[in-house]
Design a protein that fits this description.
201 residues; two-stranded antiparallel ribbon; Beta-lactamase
């Protein structure tokens, strides 16, 4: 029996490739309809909606208002936490390092803050690890502000983002400032496309 010619495929390879090709074609057709699907969903929402999805393996991207700015709300804590973890990786901070928290670090009473509720008078020490957990897992505004203080302020977060090549995310204020004046939230924004880019970093 002669060996298969170089570059030819066996029957088993053809059997495998055929369903894969069909799946790829289905995925491409499905993805092509995403913007229309999202637009239909967004039409029923009371407000402006932005979405971005990227297939990391291929770079295929679909978005709805992907380049527009949206207030980050609690997502704002993510780039702050990432900047802190970058400092940990660089050896400038450690996860077990203790940080002093004072009453002046607390966000306003109307804002969510478990660490403030547990220590209403301030004056306690807490590890960077725990601050990160409270900020990210429990959306603690005071923990986020302490991390921001530890970094040196919003400008340090922006420098970190610039280093990643992420231009469409802006951290400009503390959580306390956002809670003091509702309009401040609009200074802390991200585009859906840049939010996805940040996650891919």
């Amino acid at each position: 029996m002669r060996p298969a010619a170089r570059g030819s495929r066996s029957a088993s390879e053809d059997m495998l490739l055929s369903p894969l090709m069909a799946l790829m074609m289905w995925l491409l057709l499905w993805a092509a309809g995403l913007p229309e699907t999202w637009s239909g969903i967004a039409a029923d929402v009371k407000g402006r909606t932005g979405v971005c999805a990227v297939l990391l393996e291929t770079g295929e991207r679909h978005s709805l208002r992907g380049g527009e700015r949206f207030p980050m709300q609690s997502v704002y804590k993510l780039p702050i936490a990432m900047a802190v973890l970058a400092k940990v990786d660089a050896g400038a901070l450690t996860l077990e390092q203790k940080v002093r928290v004072t009453k002046s670090d607390f966000v306003t009473p109307k804002q969510h803050s478990p660490i403030r509720d547990m220590h209403p008078h301030g004056g306690f020490d807490i590890s960077v690890r725990e601050l990160l957990r409270y900020a990210v897992s429990e959306s603690d505004g005071s923990a986020s502000d302490v991390l921001l203080r530890l970094l040196g302020g919003p400008g340090k977060v922006q420098a970190y983002l610039a280093g990643l090549g992420v231009e469409g995310v802006r951290v400009a204020d503390t959580e306390k400032a956002i809670g003091t004046d509702d309009s401040v939230q609009y200074r802390n924004w991200a585009t859906p496309e840049s939010a996805v880019l940040l996650l891919s970093r």
